[in-house]
Amino acid sequence: MPRGPYILRSGKFQxxxxxxxxxxxxxxxxxxxxxxxQETESNxxxxxxxxxxxxxxxxxVIKSQCRCGRPAVSIRIKREEGDIGFGxxxxxxxxxxxxxxxxxxxxxxSSLRRFDFVLDQKSFLRHLKQVCGLECRERMTAQKAHDxxxxxxxxxxxxxxxxxF
Length: 165
Ligand SMILES: [Zn+2]
Fold this sequence. Notes:
By secondary structure, the chain is an alpha+beta fold.
């Protein structure tokens, strides 16, 4: 597990942590481009780290639940006159029962690709952050973004408010 965020030293996102870039549509696209690069001796560790990060983005720890009480895995969206509205959350069981002309989007980072417009991508990221227990407008600093992906999974699931003693 990496000990801290990976800060890019060059390029258009110079000075940014790759972990923070996951929380921006442009940044995510950039990372996907990097992940497809030809692996060489000098970049292989870097590329492995990017690929691992994208992989972790496929199974974020979701804190929100479906109305039946199971953990949510997707969110309902409604496309209307160029606008996209976000609705109910579904667990793996309920989402299959509720197909009825509406679209469900998996709660994971690669779902960003399902949205063509920046506003919708931003809106999806806000929802994704919320279901993961973050504030929708929370600024994802390098450390915060790193901890989001690399916090021990079990601990993240049972994290409780600290008692004062
Ligand atoms: Zn359910």
